[in-house]
Amino acid sequence: MRQNNMEAISILALQKMPGVGATTIEKVLSLPDIIEPSTPSDLIGILKEAKAKFGRISVPDIQAATIGWNQAHEIWELSLQHNIQIISKNSSDYPKFLLQISDPPALLHIKGNIWALNKDCIAIVGTRNPTRFGLSQAKKFGESFAKEGYVVVSGLAKGIDSAAHKGALKSNGLTVAVLAHGLDTVYPSENKPLADNILENNGALVSEYPWGTKSNRSSFVSRNRIQSGLSLAVLVVETNIKGGTMHTVRFCEKQNRSLIVLRPPIDLIENSNIQGNAQLISEERAEIVLEENNGINLVTNRMKNIKDMLSELEYGQLGLLVPMERSTNQKTKNINNEYINSVPSQQIVMHHSRVHDKKEKYITRTLNDYTNM
Fold first, then answer.
1. What is the mean pLDDT of the chain?
2. Please, are residues 8 and 87 in contact by the beta-carbon 8 Å criterion?
3. Which of 118, 211, 290, 293 stands 20 to 30 A from 77 (CA)?
4. What is the pTM assigned to this prediction?
């Protein structure tokens, strides 16, 4: 782990102090020439420096700072004892694509193969209550992408997530589980054997939350941005309209990742747990619409393009692409009826780029047009 350990410990201490949140920590990390803190008083001094520069920053008293400092050292020691690495966003080991999102975690807690996080990843996500079709497809896609050398990222939840992880493991590929709590536990507990299998096969468990942190609704939403942020693309296997997967979709769009959606069979169209797929397709938010376990090459080609774009961003070489116009009144009122004819078979929907605070623009091309480009 190539970083200054005291930096990670100091960030942990800040996270444990009352009134100090992610925004404050981001401001502290932006300060130039910070003297390495070695006491709680040093941390208070750094917070006062940040307050002088940015204003509206809460500075805890020495008692609160000392408690946070001691808790941070305890978490650090417990993590080391359980083979959990803690890296800051300033570490050279920090995942390069995750670093490019608007709000990368200040710290990552990683158990297992840290190098898997810097490989080319695809997130495979979906409902906890999938159809039999969805389960089989998630497993097949996990297996297929792992065979192609991609790391399969998901959230270790029941349903689609578990199937995607298992598919990757079936092909002896790498898979990463992003958790919404500290790495001292596995949720759901029934997936502890799956988590162990991921680690045994050179994969990783990762979280932005320190040892001892319990999950809540907010933490599940927050972890979804990490799933998409680590990845070049997000594949939605099955989701309902208001499911947690839709949070991942929105993060995917915000982060300029490729959104891929599986078209469910017509005989499942009434199932509420695939209505999100229908909506994403009919609203033309999907770059690529897949038919069962087909189109792997199409997706891998698109991910190579995304990787090139993100690599250029990393070195400050990318200018804004000029998007194409499209009609903005294409949302469906009746998804069930309009879904079947919304996108012809063998058609994909690609967007060139999404610019913050501007309308999303799309280009539609047939599969044959795209593959012959």
1. 84
2. yes
3. 118
4. 0.83
